[in-house]
Amino acid sequence: MAAAAATATLSDDDAEERVAATNAQMMLLTRKMIEIRNILQEISTGGGSRSLTRVQLPSIVVVGSQSSGKSSVLEAIVGHEFLPKGNNMVTRRPIELTLINSPDAAAEYGEFPALKLGKITDFAQIQKTLTDLNLAIPDSEAVSDDPIRLNIYSPHVPDLTLIDLPGYIQIAAADQPESLKSKITSLCDKYIASPNIIVAISAADVDLANSTALRAAKRVDPRGERTIGVITKLDLVDPSRAIDLLQNRSYPLQMGYVGVVSKVPSSLATRASSGLLSRFSGSGDSGDIGSVIAKNEEVYFGRHPVFTKALTDADDRTGQEQVTLGVINLRNKLMRILERTMAKNLQPACDAIHQELEETAYQFKVEYNDRPITAESYLAQSLDSFKLSFKEFAGKFGREQVRAMLKSELDQRVLDLLAQRYWNRLDEHPDLALATLDDATIKSILRPVSELPSASSDDVYWHRQLDACVSNLTKSGVGRTSTTLVSNALSGEMEHLVNSGAFKTHPYVKTIVQDATMEILNSRFYSTADQVENCIKPYKYEVEVEDQEWSKSREHTFALLKEEVRQCEAAYYKLQRSVGGGKKLSQVEKFVEKSRKGLVKMDDANEIYGFSQALIDKGREGLFLTKRADILRLRMQALKSKQCKSKDSKYYCPEIFLDVVADKLTQTAVLFLNVELLSDFYYHLPRELDARLGHGLGPQKMENFAKENAKVRRHLELQERKQKLELAAEKIESVIAMQKTRRLQPA
């Protein structure tokens, strides 16, 4: 007898070990198949052939009417309250829930893969996030088929994929669209289609004949092959009535029914919500609501012998559990069903994956010749291309280009000073109120430049005019002007390089280049401007002129005035065309000239002569251009005369002397601009870009950068698709091999 007892004990131990091993193997297979399903889901989201999108590994879809206890069942399986709750319809989007058994996890947590929020250990925060995502759907739409993906990692959950859908309604509320009922039905029909497993939730206190979930399941699964019924709220009906519902007689389903009492007892709800649940459940439990519900179910079913008798009778009759009770048994049953159903779809999915892989690999070879690409390599290539363009620009934009640019700016200042001090007519001078001055005063303030060639060499007036011009030119802030000019030119050229080069489709990198450019230029701006100002300071007091400098500036000034004459003539011709011809403009000019002499009244322009104010303004402009061109021609003759041949004639030839000063200011400024600004910028910008782009971007930003280019994005996506298909093919072949090995093992 002792030997027999020992043998029985060993047999029991062996049986338990075999069951544990089977369960572990089943969980491993389920986990691998869930991984494959997620890969297929990612590939299907990105598009592809119909074979891949049509054949998928199944998920478990949970449907039920509002208030059927659907949320309570899901939360009991997970062990936490995390689903959105509210008075109005809160679940407006499908929630694709993936449970991952993580025995080594330090804490339970959830992740929203699409939102990149990281690990969330506070399930109240998960609930808030789900609520916000659902309520983002406007009331006018009520529901959306855009799913929310949530992964939950915990040592207390099985490996499962569950999809929670909006609850069925019988009639839309006053603040809901009339089409809401049909929208929910259409959404649920999309998810409960084959091959997905349907978990039809029905409350025990509602006749199964009126169960919307069972009616919808029967419509798409008339033989009940993919449907498991879950009867909630068993504690609200008589136990014998509950057993009758669970015995799978009235509305038979091949997967049968499971009865649960999944609501947290009201006496413990307060403790659960306040965080006292772990102390209640004891040191040996997980401390989640799942353990509380399991204990509550154990107490309830144990208190009513009819449940125990039904289980015993079922075992005696068939050797199998025909009546299944409790959330824990529901979890185990869902695991077995998911594993079995997935296994049936393995070979079709494997064939579809290989077909898609073959097509994708062929496409990748044809379009890209199997050439791999990474976001990092594309960024490095783009950066090298930009640096090459930058180097070419640096070779073309140096001291000579800066000198020409700054000299052009100072040439314009010289022309403005000459116009202000020498060329403007008395009646055109903006600063003089001629009517309040006598003739002697007017002549002492501004004398016509036509008097200059015959003026005395010691005429104080002309000496003062030139000295004032030189003072204005040298004290006009050449340091700040020249530094600003070069900085703006560099900034503009960098913008041009970005918009026309490798970075033209990358707004984020454009901002980085522009920011780096401005930071480098701004860091050198004030010191460079100060250096230039200090170096040109001697010219503010004395300017020495060499014969060669005078001769060079004489030629340059003549060409400058000749260009001014050309521009005056072009502007005058354009003005003639705008008023209808030269004759019309000449008439208006004569009228304006007479009005200045007091021969006609300006008030009579419109009434008597028919000239509008706009036409009068153009007549004034025409007179100005004509007189200015005459003065410029007069000064060009003076520059060619013997009087302007010598540097000693600077007061007779102010245009030449001011050009000499501008040239000296330019040459001095360029020396320091080249050293302090240009060279520094050319050295630091490539290194700054290396730091910000080469090392400063993380993997996600690099990928985002690469995918801003449509061609590169297609290359990357096709390559990624191929890699995922290869991974899925490898995993699914591994699972198929494990299934074959499992079948060959002895029972």
Describe the structure.
A nine-stranded mixed beta sheet has the order 3-4-2-5-1-6-7-8-9, with helices on both faces. The protein is of the alpha/beta class and about 750 residues long. The protein is built from 26 helices and nine strands. The radius of gyration is 45 Å and the shape is elongated. It starts with a helix and ends with a helix.
Task: Quickly list its features.
alpha/beta; 26 helices; 747 residues; nine-stranded mixed beta sheet; 63% helix
Q: How would you describe the shape?
A: elongated
Largest sheet: 9 strands, mixed
Helix content: 55-70%
Mean pLDDT metric: 84
How many distinct beta strands? 9
Side by side, the strands of the main sheet go 3-4-2-5-1-6-7-8-9
Low-pLDDT parts are: 5-10, 272-287, 314-321, 429-437
Taking the alpha carbons of the first and last residues, their distance comes to: 27 Å
Note the beta-strand portion.
Answer: 5-15%
Q: Give Rg in angstroms.
A: 45 Å
What is the tally of helical segments?
26
Topology diagram in text:
Blueprint lengths: L1 H44 L4 H5 L5 E5 L5 H9 L16 E7 L7 E3 L11 H13 L12 E7 L5 E5 L15 H12 L5 E7 L8 H9 L6 E6 L6 H8 L10 E3 L6 H9 L2 H5 L7 H15 L1 H14 L5 E2 L1 H18 L1 H23 L6 H22 L2 H25 L15 H7 L14 H15 L3 H23 L6 H30 L10 H33 L2 H16 L6 H4 L5 H28 L13 H41 L4 H8 L3 H35 L3
Helix pairs in contact: 1-12, 1-26, 3-10, 13-26, 14-18, 14-24, 14-25, 15-17, 15-24, 17-24, 18-19, 18-24, 19-24, 20-21, 20-23, 20-24, 21-23
Entry summary:
This protein has 747 residues and is α/β, with parallel strands linked by helices.
